[in-house]
Design goal:
- The protein contains 10 helices and 3 strands.
- By secondary structure, it is mainly alpha-helical.
- The chain is globular and about 65 Å long.
Length: 235
């Protein structure tokens, strides 16, 4: 299969024909295969753009789909739908792996199946669609792959609230959260945060924002203690 035919196949999967195919080629290029300036000749800039486009589209979808949801519920749903794990799931549904441009070493190490790479490329493709045809086209792609996930998803109660209630029920002070590490560039940081309770081993969580990392840490501690929400779902 030629590269042109391969891209045509991918365009059929995502439901968008590119006027400028250099955009989709760039979106599929891992830094290991980039020539020249690795940061501008790989998908990294498009990933940054696609991340924000995705957040806006999903926010709009949630606002219209759940008119009775408050800000807290909308934020939790948004966080779950735009996280890397969900983007990687969508990338697998599209079958992006075979289309990636990787160095020989990255390909041999399983780069086409790495969740982190798949998630980043998924966002980059959204960014490429946005630049090629505008917001409406990008929103159409996002709705195509996220709408069913959005409607089927029932978020857990806020993990931090659950953990605080669990601690109070045992006469413990409120959980204490501590930032352990911040990594990555300023436009795309990743936080590692621990949550601590007297007499218990601290639990850790990671996220793109401090809020997400705190929620992840609280979820980890709740899961360790086998705490379930009122519906019987374990955190």
């Amino acid at each position: 299969m030629t590269r042109a035919k391969s891209i045509s196949s991918l365009e059929g999967r995502i439901g968008h024909r590119f006027s400028d195919r250099t955009l989709i080629e760039l979106a599929l290029t891992h830094v290991s295969a980039a020539k020249g300036d690795k940061r501008t000749k790989s998908y990294q800039r498009l990933e940054f753009l696609g991340d924000h486009v995705l957040g806006l589209v999903i926010s709009d979808m949630l606002f219209r789909a759940f008119p009775r949801a408050d800000e807290g519920e909308l934020s939790q749903r948004l966080s779950d739908l735009v996280r890397k794990e969900t983007c990687a799931e969508v990338a697998l549904a599209i079958d992006l792996g075979p289309y990636l441009r990787l160095s020989g070493n990255e390909a041999k190490s399983g780069g086409r199946k790495k969740s982190a790479i798949l998630a980043d490329v998924c966002e980059a493709v959204i960014g490429a669609v946005f630049l090629d045809a505008g917001y409406a086209a990008a929103a159409e792609m996002v709705e195509r792959f996220w709408r069913e996930r959005m409607l089927a998803h029932r978020p857990l109660r806020d993990a931090k609230t659950m953990l605080q209630e669990w601690a109070q029920g045992r006469g413990l002070p409120p959980p204490a959260y501590r930032e352990l590490e911040r990594r990555g560039p300023d436009h795309r940081p990743e936080f590692r945060i621990s949550v601590e309770l007297p007499g218990f081993t601290a639990a850790e969580g990671k996220g793109r924002t401090k809020r997400d990392a705190e929620q992840a840490a609280a979820t980890a501690m709740l899961a360790r203690k086998g705490v379930a929400d009122p519906a019987g779902n374990h955190a």
